[in-house]
């Protein structure tokens, strides 16, 4: 319910990231053997976390964050464990200890053309988790 409320109340979107967030949400919900958790930290992030239910080594395989430091101009960051994805176009950033204390690989969704590329990384991380 909290996720639906967040989506409904998200009316200001000058960077037009809400549709991409919704695409990623729908993708995560469509993946087999996956639970989606929503964690709200207003003023910091609103986070979708994809968990593969058949494994218990890690609590998630992807974190889709709506960065909320400026609620009038939100943006998306999508992070993975470093070894679960490839980045052939080198669009992401290596973040040492950046994903729940482990090395992460994060992408800023800053243009429409990276949207599908990142969706491919979500599928890849799911398959490799």
Automatic annotation (TrEMBL):
<protein>
    <submittedName>
        <fullName>Uncharacterized protein</fullName>
    </submittedName>
</protein>
